[in-house]
What does this fold into?
Amino acid sequence: MEKRKLSFWEIWNMSFGFLGIQFGFALQGGFMSRIFQTLGANHDDIPLLWIAAPLTGLLVQPIVGYLSDRTWHSKLGRRRPYFLIGAVLSSIALFFVPHSPALWVAAGFLWVLDASINISMEPFRALVADKLPESQRSYGFVVQTLIIGIGTWVASNLPWMVSQLGYSDAAPQGVVPMSVKVAFAIGGFVFLLSVLYTIFTTSEYPPEDLKAFQKEKEQKGRFIKDITENIGKMPKTMKRLGVIQFFSWFAFFTMWSLANPALTEHVFNAPAPVEANFNMENITEKEAFNVANTAFQKASNLVGSAMGIYGLSSMAFALLLTFYTSKRTINRKYVHMVSLMLGGLGFILMYFINNPDHLKYCFVLIGISWGSILSMPYAMLSSSVDPKKMGMFMGIFNMFIVIPQIIAALGGINFISGLLGEEAINAMLVAGMSLIVAGLCNFLIINKSAISYQTQNE
It folds into this structure.
């Protein structure tokens, strides 16, 4: 079927739901470790507590991708039913996460939250490939990245913004501050509204042969067979992109899970106080704990705001690419390579920073790599797979995102950073080296249709 070219605003509308999805991911990525630390977690335990995120992605995305390929609803279409289900569940989870009374409850809510976000996210990736002709794929994924950048920056600053409105950063021992609770509630509200906006402003193409589609849909017991067969038939370009994704997402999982303990300690000199080191029955020591805890919470707000810079930077990078790709083609391979290596440099520079104001320069570089990660691999992939199986292949491709995160959570980060020393900041050095390796792996991409859309697929 010949697909018409869409205007900027049509592409914007179909991607707008990603604003809410990124509110969820940014709040999760920027502040879950803070919640874990507030509830008593040691920084060495945090990566394992984060294992919920990649495990749910490993399970949910291929299933949702497969199901959405085989779904057609007369009013909601193919992908939009999953947008709606994921948005409702995510909004509920975002409200309850910061109210967790214990560490195990917070870890459990992370499972629910990440699974819910994944239900919405995977179909959004597939929708770009569904709706756009191949000549607009890079443009579409870049617009999506632009919206993600806006969401990252605003959501990362939410606790700081809320605290500026008078909500307290102080809280009793083991209780998440009100500023964080209000920020997460706002995030849930934005998530639902932005996804509803896309649902109401975007239509989808029906299957070309609806009868054949319904007949195929009625076949039972094919899920496991289809998934395993298509993993075996994975295009070479997809496998090579998988290597790049492995090192890219190992780096960003390291940032999400350990940037807060690393930067509050190394840059702000305000690590999370360990309750066992204080005699809480002594008024003086209890007050000292409260002072240290408030300093940690305020430093965490600033770390979150600094992390928001990478969303702003990725937004600016995406905006630049949006203007360029609307009229011209780009070499996706070299754009991605340079972007990843700049991000790696940003992580490494954190080790040498003493002034918190200089963190923003590191996150500017990291944002360039993030903007590329959210667009270039998907643009390259969409030019290399069967359009009829786009949702399933996008879900399978997610394996290359979640497997490195699982390895990192199960001890990979602690082991590698431990080789460099005991300081939490060493994890950021590991993230930097991993991104540089990911950048160099772009030399593996040789398929011309992945590098630019103009030639035939491999």
